[in-house]
Structure formats: structure tokens, C-alpha cells
Amino acid sequence: MADHLTGGCYCGGVRYRLDGPRRDIIGCHCSQCRKTSGHFAAMTSVPKDKLILLSDETLTWFQSSETVRRGFCNRCGGNLFFDPAEKPTISVTAGTLDLPTGLRMTRHIFVKDRSDYYDIPAD
Ligand SMILES: [Zn+2]
Ligand SMILES: [Zn+2]
Q: Domain coordinates of the chain in residue numbers?
């Protein structure tokens, strides 16, 4: 595994680096992730101090619930971060990572809240 990964939104207004170990990718199908991502959210996560913002020129935070804020790019609309106040980790959308990520999608959560146009493979 590489020491760090980099990533960013489509327009480049937000760029970041992830230092240290990254969690495998989890797909979250809850309604908030659906509405903010446009489908479902696929995210890795890192300890908060391991997310280094290289550019935050167009980063905007949206308070999506009492304890969670989500970071997105206010220029290209890229959905980047899920930051729960009560947790020591921050989630980062997998699609914004530069390749190769070296990560695998291993789990789906809030599956019962998914939309009605797709199924989750049983494995
Ligand atoms: Zn952008
Ligand atoms: Zn979710």
C-alpha cells in the first residue's frame, strides 16, 4: 500500500491527501447519501488528522444533520467528505481518489434504504 493517496473534485478546486491507513470502501445507501451523491455514497475513511487539504478554494460544508457535515465543491458539485462530529474519523468519497486507490469495496450499509432501481449483489 502506498504511504498516501491523493484526490480531489472534478474541477480541482478541492485537492487532498490521505496519510496513513485507509479503510476499505463502504457503500452507504441511506437517503442522505442518495440525495447528496446522486446514487449511493462509496467512501473510505481516515483519522481526521490524516486528511490534509492541499486546496480548499471551493470547499463548502453543508450541515446534513445535527452531528454530521458534508463537504462538497461549490464549483463542480463534487461530493467529497462526510464528517461526523462524534467520530475520530472522516469519510472521503472513493470516486474522488486518484488512481490507483489500492482499495476494495467490501461492504454496503443502509441497504434497506436504497432506491428501487437497483439490487445489491448478494456477495
Ligand atoms: Zn470542483
Ligand atoms: Zn449514508
A: 4-113
